[in-house]
Amino acid sequence: MNVPPTVTPRAFDRLAEIGAASQGKALRVAVSGGGCSGFQYEITLDEPVDDDLVLEKDGEKVVVDATSLPFLTGATIDFTDELIGARFAIDNPNASSSCGCGTSFSI
User: Fold this and answer.
1) How far apart are CA 49 and CA 63, in angstroms?
2) Whole-Å CA distances, 101 to 28, 35, 55
3) Which domains are delineated in the chain?
4) What is the per-residue DSSP string for 29-89?
5) Is residue 7 over pLDDT 80?
6) Which pTM was predicted?
7) Among candidate residues 72, 29, 71, the one with its CA nearest the CA of residue 48
8) Taking every annotated instance into account, which residue ranges of this chain make up the domain Core (predicted)?
9) Range 56-74 average pLDDT
């Protein structure tokens, strides 16, 4: 059973703070080959397209393309603000290992 990714309220709140929806943008979470662990996350502000999975709250949107979706099944998309910096972060149950910076992973 494929469980779609979830987005925390904190991530949606951050999108609202930066005004993504008012610019016609969504947070795009994609997976591509590369990185130090085999796959890497690409997190950008982008316009949604027809084949995207759209996760929405109060007009703010997070989108995942059809190719990346299997890699993000059951993942949680969050926003963290720590001493080392603020960023959107992914907790991915499909990843068997990940690098220290949290942007690449292996399955």
Assistant:
1) 9
2) 19, 11, 25
3) 6-96 (2.60.300.12)
4) EEEEE-STTSEEEEEEEE---TT-EEEEETTEEEEE-TTTGGGGTT-EEEEEEETTEEEEE
5) yes
6) 0.84
7) 29
8) 6-102
9) 93
